[in-house]
Amino acid sequence: MAKDLNITILLDVYGQLLTEKQRFAIDMYYNEDLSLAEIAEEIDISRQGVRESIKQGEKHLLEYEEQLGVVRRFRSISAQLEKLNSLLDTIDFEGKDKIAEISKEIAAEI
Predict the structure, then answer these.
(1) pLDDT tens string 48-84
(2) Looking at residue 51, which CATH number applies to its domain?
């Protein structure tokens, strides 16, 4: 299986919506970089069972993102904040530091 590292972000956002087995298998596969065989031994199911659990979990994560769009909105807001900060770097005016500070606070909250 090819690893889509976007899944780790989706797991962070939507992981609690998965079954415990799916969440655990995906976490071990993507974050711990364990093989299917190692995960199977760890949770005492077949390698094929692990593969199916990961595939189903990935499918659910992608569906949640398609329906809710939390990660998409996060990325959009982050990109807009980066543009704002780049623009602030090119101009000089009173209050620039305050706007940059607010931008950093927003970025820290998202």
Answers:
(1) 999 999 999 999 999 999 999 999 999 999 999 999 8
(2) 1.10.10.10
